[in-house]
Every structure is written in C-alpha cells, then in structure tokens.
C-alpha cells in the first residue's frame, strides 16, 4: 500500500514548485492518477514530462508496489490553456 | 541491442512519417491499446506498422531503443512520441495534428 501523499512528496522532491494532485483510483493503494503542473515542463515533450515524474518513483514501479500511474502533465502555460477543459 | 537492430529501428522511424510499433498488424491488432493507437493515428495519415509479436528481438529491442517499457509505441517524424495514453491525451488536446504537420516540438 502506497499513500498518495508519499507519491506527491517524491514528485515535489524532484520537481519543486509544481502543483501535484495524486488520487488513488481503486482504493487499493497501487493504482493512482496524478496531475502535475510544473515550470520544469516548459518546452518539453509529453514523454519527457512523464519521464521526469516517473524518475523519483522508479523503485516502486520496478517492485510492482506501484502498479499503475495515469499521468496528466502540463507546463503552467499548457495548464492555463487546457486546464479548464 | 545489436548495431544491426538499432540501424533497423533508425531506418523504420525515419523512412515513414508515422510509425506504430504494435501487437499484431493493421488488419488484425492483437491488443486493445494497439488497436486504439492505430485508430487515432489513421485519422492523421498513413501509418506504417511494425508487428512486435512477429519477432521477440524487436519486441524487447524497441523498449530499449525508446527507453519506454510498454507497447504500443508511436514515432512521428523520427521522434518517439509515447504510448497509447500519451497519444490519446495529445489527440484530446488537439496537439497531434500539429505534431504530424511538424508544427510543434511536442
């Protein structure tokens, strides 16, 4: 069981100043979704943005403790444009 | 990955504007994610598909080539774009057309 807050803390650790919302989608502590808005994403492709989020979670992903993480990532500019869809 | 395999991937992704590494082929997708990715991409042009189930070396190799753990994988104009989730999100955001047109770096 992973606490959504622990995921959030780790993401914030490598992407300081970002806006991170993590939710447990199944209530089983292994499937999550996260929305991350970070200034570090500016000018980066979506793949690069996702890899930045996965990086601090590698050990959980590898061990299978974290089975799935559905991601939505935005630079602040993208969020302004798309966030209210 | 062998240099030969890397050269093969290099040529697959640069010789076609839209390339999909998928399970199965365009006529018979063998996985829902692959089918979905194909369906989205086909709205934007001709899709060159590579069936990873036909060759275990390709199935493993493509993951190393793109540093991405799952299949399907999409390449547009030689650049790795992502898997089915990213593709759907780009389509939702209206960014996929720009990407195919070569207009955005996304």
Automatic annotation (TrEMBL), chain A:
It holds the Pfam family BolA. InterPro entries: BolA, BolA-like_sf, BolA/IbaG_stress_morph_reg. Belongs to the BolA/IbaG family. This is YrbA protein. It comes from Melittangium boletus DSM 14713.
Automatic annotation (TrEMBL), chain B:
The keyword Metal-binding applies. Residues 18-81 form the Glutaredoxin domain. InterPro entries: Glutaredoxin, GRX_PICOT-like, Monothiol_GRX, Monothiol_GRX-rel, Thioredoxin-like_sf. One of its GO terms (molecular function) is disulfide oxidoreductase activity. Keywords: 2Fe-2S, Iron, Iron-sulfur, Metal-binding, Redox-active center. It holds the Pfam family Glutaredoxin. CDD domains: GRX_PICOT_like. [2Fe-2S] cluster binds at residue 31. Belongs to the glutaredoxin family. Monothiol subfamily. This is Glutaredoxin. It comes from Melittangium boletus DSM 14713.
């Amino acid at each position: 069981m992973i606490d959504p807050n622990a995921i959030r803390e780790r993401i914030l650790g490598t992407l300081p100043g970002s806006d991170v919302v993590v939710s447990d989608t199944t209530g089983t502590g292994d499937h999550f979704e996260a929305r991350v808005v970070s200034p570090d994403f500016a000018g980066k492709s979506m793949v690069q943005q996702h890899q930045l989020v996965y990086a601090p979670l590698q050990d959980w992903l590898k061990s299978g403790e974290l089975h799935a993480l559905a991601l939505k990532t935005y630079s602040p500019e993208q969020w302004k444009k798309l966030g209210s869809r | 990955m062998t240099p030969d395999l890397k050269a093969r991937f290099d040529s697959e992704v640069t010789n076609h504007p839209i390339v999909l590494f998928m399970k199965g082929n365009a006529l018979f997708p063998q996985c829902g994610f692959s089918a979905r990715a194909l369906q989205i991409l086909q709205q934007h042009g001709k899709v060159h598909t590579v069936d990873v189930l036909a060759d275990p070396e390709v199935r493993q190799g493509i993951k190393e080539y793109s540093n991405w753990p799952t299949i399907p994988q999409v390449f547009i104009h030689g650049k790795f774009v992502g898997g089915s989730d990213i593709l759907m999100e780009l389509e939702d955001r209206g960014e996929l057309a720009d990407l195919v047109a070569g207009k955005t770096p996304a």
